[in-house]
Amino acid sequence: MTSKLIPKDPEKVMVVRDVVPRTITTLSVPFLRFGRIKVGGRGTIVRLQSGALAVFSPVALTDEVKQKVAEMGEVKYITALDIEHHIFLGPWHQAYPNAKVLGPEGLAEKRKSQKNEDVPFAYIFSKDKPLTSIDPEFDSEFDYEFVYAHQNKEIVFNHKPTKTLIQADLLFNYPATEQFSKTGVAATSGILTKIFGGLTNTRSDWQKRLIWYGISSKDRAGFARSVSKVDKWDFERIIPCHGDVIETGGKGIFQKIMEWHLDLAKKSS
């Protein structure tokens, strides 16, 4: 954790927003990749019908966030959506020690090698031992798929009651307007940000190419099988960790970005 990556005072620049009143809250923060590229970061809190809270890709646990959590319910699940989105697992687990921690295979070993806080994983998503159930309370509201062929070992969730896809690096939606809205700095400023934003927006075909020729290239068939499963889910909203929330029409955008992989899955079936 360095000041070039995350803000020194996240309380001042975090945007806490109720995407779905009393059900989904996002925690959007500025984040710089390589200390230069304005990618933004986002955590998501979902209140289950039982009143339990599921937290995805947790960001800084500020006083405002703690207050919001207290108003919403009890944290019962904390998920690192891939092997990159785990920086704040330690503080969240310390604050909510009874919560079950979920993450992808390889993350526990990575955290140990980096000498991160010791966080016990209750559920690990694995290619060889697929998780088919968390518990009835969780399973009744979420679809989930482990995209093991993604280079970051991505876990994707669909909150069925609100038709909301929650993911980290599977799909980006730049620019990160909301995430930099309280910084006083334009989300699109800087040549590296402009280049990266051109490759990772949802308007052009560049992100489709980036995923096909880069991110999925080591196991394109496996990636295609996973996105084909996701495509069968019923969702309209997409909450990415990087870039703005897609409030409507998310399914069509997903199908556009993943078109080649979806075609590959059809040919292979």
From TrEMBL:
Residues forming coiled coils: none
Pfam assignment, any one: DUF4336
Domain of life per record: Eukaryota
Protein name per UniProt: DUF4336 domain-containing protein
